[in-house]
Amino acid sequence: MHNDITLFNDESHRFILLNESDPGDEDGIPSNQYLILHNGKGTLLDPGGFGVMPQVLNVMLQYIQPQDIEAIVLSHQDPDIVGGLSSWMRLTSAKVFASRIWRRFLPHYGLTHMRFVDIPDEGGNITLNSGLTLSFIPAHFLHSPGQINVYDPLSKILFSGDVGASLVPLDEKANHADVFAQNFSTHRQFTEGFHKRYMASNRALRYWVQQVRKLDIDIIAPQHGLLYRGQVKDDFLDWVYDLPCGSDLFELD
Ligand SMILES: [Fe+2]
Ligand SMILES: [Fe+2]
């Protein structure tokens, strides 16, 4: 488990991996939470589940106060993303951006402070009050039917949600000096099973890779596990482009 790490920093703009939160059950998947600081305001990307909320808040407070969080982006509808949202919505006055297809389902998490902004299927750019521009990149069916990635053009970081997620054993993590995968051929074993079972189809992966390759990306930052940059990032994109997964693996009569 790592502590908070600044992935990009200039005078007015900072992209931080807040921490890797452990849900408190050995079977629960740890998750990455990210904070973008821009001109003194904050944007949280996938703030995490109910159990990790206090840990995330604790680290976030080192950087910014809750009243200065202007936006929360949900990559999709899962509990490891939305589970803590009710507390975040009470603590902040942030707008919450999520795929339009999940709006009517999210109230079932017990959310009463409705400040949702729909992200259309085709994604698009939004500029917040701080002047921060976020680019929403569709990643539908990877794995959620309404999955949204966030590209930050200033840091050239793509927050990829569950795409690229890995579950790296603790003893293996101890070999890592930082939060980046070092070599895709050795990292692949920690991400392959997840992509084959959770991603809907190779067609969805190929579409995503085609969109992502149009962007100038330094880092791919997923919601679980290690991050990708340099050659490992390129090797990851090549691999998922050709990966049969999800419904591709059904054997039809
Ligand atoms: Fe998910
Ligand atoms: Fe996830």
Decide which structural class fits the backbone. alpha/beta
Q: What Rg is obtained from the alpha carbons, in whole angstroms?
A: 17 Å
CATH fold-level topology: Metallo-beta-lactamase, Chain A
CATH-assigned homologous superfamily = Ribonuclease Z/Hydroxyacylglutathione hydrolase-like
Distance between the amino and carboxyl termini:
45 Å
H/E element sequence: EEEEHEHHEEEEEEHHHHEEH
Query: Would you count the extended β strands for me?
Result: 13
Share of helix among residues? 10-25%
Strand content: 25-35%
Second CATH tier, the architecture: 4-Layer Sandwich
* Unreliable residue runs: none
Mean pLDDT over the full residue set: 94
List cofactors, ions and other ligands: fe (ii) ion
Plain-language structure description:
The chain contains 8 helices and 13 strands. By secondary structure, it is an alpha/beta fold. The chain has one domain: Ribonuclease Z/Hydroxyacylglutathione hydrolase-like (Metallo-beta-lactamase, Chain A, 4-Layer Sandwich). The strands form 2 sheets. The protein has a 7-stranded mixed sheet. Strands 8-9-10-11-12-13 form a 6-stranded mixed sheet. Helix 7 packs antiparallel against helix 8. The longest helix is centred in the C-terminal third of the chain and has 12 residues. The relative contact order is 0.14. The model has no long low-confidence stretch (mean pLDDT 94). The site of one fe (ii) ion (FE2) has 5 residues, from loops.
